[in-house]
Amino acid sequence: MMYLWSVFTKPWLGLPGDELGRLISGLGFAGAEVPVRDTAYVTPASAEAELPKFTAQLRAEGIEPISVASDLSEQVFAACAESGVPMIRIMADLGLDGYAASVRRNRELLEDAAVLTERYDVQVGVQPHHGRYVSSTLGVLQLLDGLPDRFKLVWDAAHDALAGDHPAVTLELGADRLGIVNLKNVHYLRTDGAWKTNFVEAEEGLSDWSAVFAALRQLQWSGPICLTAQYSAGPVEERLERDLRFAVTSAAQHPSRE
Questions:
Q1: Which parts of the chain fold into alpha helices (H)?
Q2: What is the share, in percent, of the chain residues with pLDDT greater than 70?
Q3: Domain range enclosing 237
Q4: Rounded distance, CA 28 to CA 12, Å?
Q5: Count of the separate structural domains present in the chain
Q6: Which InterPro entries match (predicted)?
Q7: 69: Cβ–Cβ under 8 A, 6 or more apart, which residues?
Q8: Do the domain assignments include residue 44?
């Protein structure tokens, strides 16, 4: 199976597109998810002017933008359409109003965005996230139920493991919505008398990446794989290169049946 090996470029969010493209290409990647946030090189306010130039610089270095991590404002949709970026990735946050009310609020936001997904032909990807977000794959699928096909699941290995789920179950259930597969890993570390999440390399955490690729093989899925470059400690580039090698090797052990 040929995957588009991609990386979330948050660790280098201040770099212009040409420098970023050279850096991540040198690490072995051919795709990128770009943060479009107030703290990044491209912000939501500047996206319509800057994102087309930024993505053109990435493509000149052999890097295809697979998504942006941003908000659902019309200016971000318009920038993605102009730049040829197919997806905006978000998470569904939980407020002080409680889980049920927060889910209703997030659903209303997604329903309001449906007209923008159609107008600009840009998808919305929702990722589960541990903590004050809809944290499970199944919770995200429930949130998306009944929405148009442009609303996708961004499946995440670490957060799936933190939710106590297994890729053989959640990837199959989410197959019809699957837009991006995120790879990172995590375990719990006891610090100052409390258990905290500690993001680690591929072979050190709760998620079994080999099981992820076995499930993807069964689904015959060939979309982008995004390593999120999230580590609680240590040099990002060295860890990321090792994780990419491990992911490529794991994928090769579960080749396509085609």
A1: 17-26, 47-60, 74-83, 99-120, 137-144, 157-162, 167-173, 209-219, 236-252
A2: 98
A3: 4-252
A4: 16
A5: 1
A6: IolE/XylAMocC-like, Xyl_isomerase-like_sf, Xyl_isomerase-like_TIM-brl
A7: 8, 10, 33, 34, 35, 36, 37, 88, 89, 90
A8: yes
